[in-house]
Amino acid sequence: MSWIDTIFSWGIIYIYAICTVILLVAFIFGKDRLLRIVPWVLGIGFFFHTLIWFMRWYRTGYFPANGEFENALSGGWFAVVLTLYIFIRRPGLVGIALVTVPVTLLFLGYGIMKKPMALPHNAALKSSWLVIHVAFAQLAFGAYLVAAGFGVIYLLKQRSENRKESSKILDNLPVMPVLDELMFKFIVFGFIADAIMIIAGSIWAKDLWGSYWSWDPVEVWSLASWLLYGLSIHLRVTLGWKGRRLAWLYIFAIIGIIIAYWGVDFFIRNSQHIFGVRPE
């Protein structure tokens, strides 16, 4: 990495770390005033995050998706941009950052310790399908992560109400049916983006490997995760599942997406989805 990349990368990691500490202190100790500065701190981090993201794209000539760091950079960017969008539309929902920011921080930290350098793309990856496939994958990840954030604050608010505890932070959140509806909308959004990702990947795979589907571990985990989210939508629409049960499901379902995007590449070396491509 160049010195500029290094400074910006560690800079956004430290800013997201500060943001995480502020969120934890606010929720644990009930310091609701601290939440007012979260959007500003996160906005500064997002500015530099966007800067290094486009710098990496300009330098390599392709969508940042080469190695653990670039995947964390792209996935985290979509998660943070959706978080800030919610802040703008509903300022009282700062609490969802309690999930999106720490997860982005951890993945960026993991990525910068693994393969942070800007490597040339393999010839097979030099396709416009890369942008479509990976962009929708990371967009789905961001939406699912936001939904998990809604799940966490839903459970915290429900717990507070059940125990009849007073909390300015939780009391200022929208009523639980509104949280439930927003959580579900982001799941539907992510589910559609996920479907486009799978279809685009299949079309691209036909050109790359000669078949639309090869039961690669990444493909299997992605399909299983997509079906799980599809099942959750079915349970909501058909069987009327709401609230607590779906909140827990969305919090744990994000693990499948994390395994598909990062876990398989960590444990399995013969996957066709080689995220850490070496220079030719």
Write the layout of secondary structure elements.
Elements: H1 3-29, H2 38-60, H3 68-89, H4 97-114, H5 128-162, H6 168-171, H7 176-209, H8 217-237, H9 244-267
Helix pairs in contact: 1-2, 1-4, 2-3, 3-4, 3-5, 4-5, 5-7, 5-9, 7-8, 8-9
Task: Describe this structure as you would to a colleague.
This protein has helices at residues 3-29, 38-60, 68-89, 97-114, 128-162, 168-171, 176-209, 217-237, 244-267. It contains nine helices and no strands. Mean pLDDT is 86; it is low at 275-280. By secondary structure, the chain is mainly α. The longest helix is centred in the middle third of the chain and has 35 residues, at 128-162. It has one domain.
